[in-house]
Amino acid sequence: MTIAHEGSFTSAAARLYLSQPSLSVQIRKLEQDVGARLFERTGRHIVLTAAGSALLEHTEIALAELERGRERVAEVSGLREGEVRVGVLPSIGARMLPEVLARFRRAHPLVGVRIVEHDISREFEQLVRSGELDLAMTRMPLTLSGLCVDELVREPVLVLVPAAHRLAGRAEVALAELAGEDLVGMRTGYGLRDLADQLLAEAGVRPRVVLETGQLAIVHGMVAAGMGVALLPRMAAGEGPTVPIADSCAFRELGVVSRASAHVSPPVQAFRRLLLRTARD
After folding, report:
1. Residue 27: in which H helix or E strand, if any?
2. CATH topology for the 154-251 domain
3. CATH number for the segment(s) 79-153+253-280
4. Fewer CB within 10 Å, N or C, the chain?
5. Does the pLDDT of residue 79 top 50, yes or no?
6. Are 2 and 56 in contact (CB under 8 A)?
């Protein structure tokens, strides 16, 4: 699993505190055991074969279960108070997390909470499935198997506009009316950009993107400066001038993702319950 993530025997060996020859011998033995090559070299990088990809999926699940087993032993033995590892999209973290974290800390002061921010939902799904995260607040629907999801919120997508824009003050706007507008957005591959591109494509609008960025704050600043408009969900749109979208497809569904596992630690269960209750409120 480490070789697959690092893309290099040398880097993986260093991370595992092994010599490269020793690691290579282990991989050869594993390939003999499963009866297939697991890696192949492409230029300077090592990539998984189809057989390697198939084995990796089960390896991640197996190692995650082993870590869960260690956590259960620690809980039973009273060796530690526990930790909850939560992934969150930056566009929702500032709105949903503060109250949840404050309430959780008051109720469970000895349980640590580690927050991981990421803009790509699929990355969170992989981290939850591999056991590196306990929960993730991310966009629905799911794309990977071995996970379960509880709906957090369904929020409208709005058009963020400059204060002096022709659409400012409108009661609502159809997506088709955005044809020809300059668009400010996140970079391709980011969840907010994927959502905007999907909505515009469904409306038959080809966006004219004048600025791309990896920071939501820059999107807000550029729109305020008159560079263009932006399509953003309500929690990401902030306090700037916005116009509701008339199209029924203009919404974002968010959920809390966890592994489809028989055991979930008490701290994780408590955090998920509080998160869902806060979202409903």
Report:
1. helix 20-34
2. D-Maltodextrin-Binding Protein; domain 2 (3.40.190)
3. 3.40.190.10
4. C
5. no
6. no
* Tokens 């990539």 sit on residue: 47
Q: Any bridge partners for residue 101, and if so which?
A: none
- Highest mean predicted confidence (pLDDT) among 60-74, 88-102, 152-166, 248-262: 152-166
Q: How far apart are CA 223 and CA 186, in angstroms?
A: 12
Answer whether 119's CB lies under 8 Å from 214's CB.
Answer: yes
Domain range 2-74, CATH class: mainly alpha
Are 84 and 113 contacting, i.e. CB atoms less than 8 angstroms apart? yes
Pairing outcome for strands 39-42 and 251-259: unpaired
End-to-end CA distance of the chain: 41
At residue 197, φ and ψ (nearest 5 deg) are -60, -40
| Residues contacting 85, CB < 8 A, separation 6+ | 114, 116, 132, 133, 134, 135
- Whether the predicted pLDDT of 78 surpasses 70: no
User: In angstroms, rounded to a whole number, what is the distance separating the alpha carbons of residues 54 and 38?
Assistant: 9
Highest mean pLDDT: which range of 41-45, 146-150, 182-186, 256-260: 182-186
- Counting every residue written for the chain, the total comes to 281
